[in-house]
Write a structure and sequence with these properties.
It contains 10 helices and 18 strands. The radius of gyration is 23 Å and the shape is elongated. β1 and β2 form a beta hairpin. The protein is α+β, with helices and mostly antiparallel strands. 45% of the residues are buried. The protein folds into 2 domains: 266 residues, Aminopeptidase (3-Layer(aba) Sandwich); 108 residues, Alpha-Beta Plaits, CATH 3.30.70.360. The two termini are 22 Å apart. The protein binds zinc ion. InterPro entries: Bact_exopeptidase_dim_dom (IPR036264), Pept_M20_glutamate_carboxypep (IPR017150), Peptidase_M20 (IPR002933), Peptidase_M20_dimer (IPR011650), Peptidase_M20A (IPR050072). It holds the Pfam family M20_dimer. It is an enzyme of class 3 (hydrolase).
Length: 381
């Protein structure tokens, strides 16, 4: 068994204690005050765990929590590995209790992804027990708005990733499995607004142009773009419109989420959305939105990185698997830039964004040791 695994197992109580501190510091994306409070605890945990001359850069945001970037002060020619994590969650404060059941721990954001974040810190700590000087230079980026589309962090993620040789995304593995994520769908978010003409539903129905009627027809057309074989889905998840049942509606809108596995499909869907035309020429359409995350497609570089992970797994006596994920992560940005990216290195469990969100804490040491072994495997090549 790996020395890192043994070291991590010996420190299980300390790890659990830090994990619970992080989870108790609840951090819903839209609560800057809470996210920053969690950031304070995160900084403490980081500094208490790791030796070395770390430089902390804090990127302030007025509406989102601050992003935290830790890197080593000494400039070196060693390969730079980026550990990418977010510490915001989808949970309102107090919405989900923290409960331990056997080897599992339930709590808000524990699976997605505070346990994975902590695992990257402990992977480096376990390496520091063995090496006074690491054969690579670790860089940690902790962001605060992944769950709401990474609006304020995207640029920073891209900039930092471009200075690195590989990116390890500490998001959890596919729910209920140990599988790493080597492909992720791209995600687009659009809003379709329809402008009609209001009229009294009784006296002047024929003078009205129903925005709701028009939108309904558009929705059917939109959802026909779904193609499961291609892995493309177009989902209208929210609709709004109208003011009263006795009024022909003057306005209506739909929120659209689409997912694609390739850039080609993304272009196709975007083109379809941007060329929508009204069924009733008296109605007006307006479409807005963007491809929020480009698809993370398999590349030669990412395959090589995954193969290194397989070797690292062998040293621990585990056989890894890979999988495609339907959800996007910040790894989509770095992969799209051509930087070797491996996602899903976090802690196994289940229930992301669901009330049964939990991790298998008994697998923490194994996963964290895997990251340590992977760093060595990659620096030696
Ligand atoms: Zn996440």
């Amino acid at each position: 068994m790996s020395v890192f695994y043994e070291y991590l197992e010996e420190n299980k109580a300390k790890i659990k204690d830090q994990l619970l501190q992080l989870v108790k510091a609840e951090s819903p994306s839209h609560r800057k005050d809470k996210v920053d409070e969690c950031g304070v605890i995160l900084k403490e945990i980081f500094q208490n765990n790791l030796n070395g001359n770390w430089q902390l850069q804090e990127f302030e945001n007025s509406n989102a929590g601050n992003h935290l970037l830790f890197s080593l002060k000494e400039d070196s020619n060693k390969p730079r590995f980026l550990f990418l994590s977010h510490f915001d969650t989808v949970w309102e404060v107090g919405a989900l209790p923290i409960v331990e059941k056997g080897d599992d721990i339930y709590g808000p954001g524990i699976f997605d992804m505070k346990a994975g974040l902590l695992s990257s810190i402990w992977a480096i700590r376990s390496l520091q027990q063995e090496y006074t000087e690491l054969p690579f230079s670790p860089v940690f980026l902790f962001t605060s708005d992944e769950e709401v589309g990474s609006t304020t962090s995207r640029k920073l993620i891209e900039e930092v990733a471009q200075t690195c040789d590989a990116v390890f995304v500490m998001e959890p593995p596919v729910s209920g499995t140990f599988a790493l994520k080597t492909e992720r769908k791209g995600v687009g978010r659009y809003t379709l607004s329809v402008k009609g003409v209001s009229a009294h539903a009784g006296n002047h129905h024929e003078d009205g142009v129903s925005a709701i009627h028009e939108l309904s027809q558009q929705i059917i057309k939109l959802e026909q773009l779904t193609n499961y074989e291609q892995g493309t889905t177009v989902n209208v998840g929210v609709i709004r419109g109208g003011t009263s049942s006795n009024v022909v509606s003057a306005a209506a809108e739909a929120e659209i989420d689409f997912r694609v596995t390739s850039h080609g499909e993304a272009d196709k869907i975007i083109k379809a959305l941007e060329s929508l035309s009204p069924f009733n020429n008296a109605a007006e359409l307006a479409i807005s939105g963007e491809l929020n995350r480009p698809p993370m497609e398999k590349s030669e570089k990412s395959v090589r990185l995954y193969q290194k992970a397989l070797l690292a797994g062998k040293r621990l006596g585990i056989e890894l698997q890979e999988a495609k994920a339907g959800g996007g992560s910040d790894g989509n940005f770095t992969a799209a830039l051509g930087i070797p990216t491996l996602d899903g290195l976090g802690i196994p469990g289940d229930g992301p964004h669901a009330i049964h969100e939990h991790i298998h804490f008994d697998r923490f040491s194994e996963r964290s040791a895997l990251v340590a072994e992977l760093c060595l495997e990659l620096s030696n090549s």
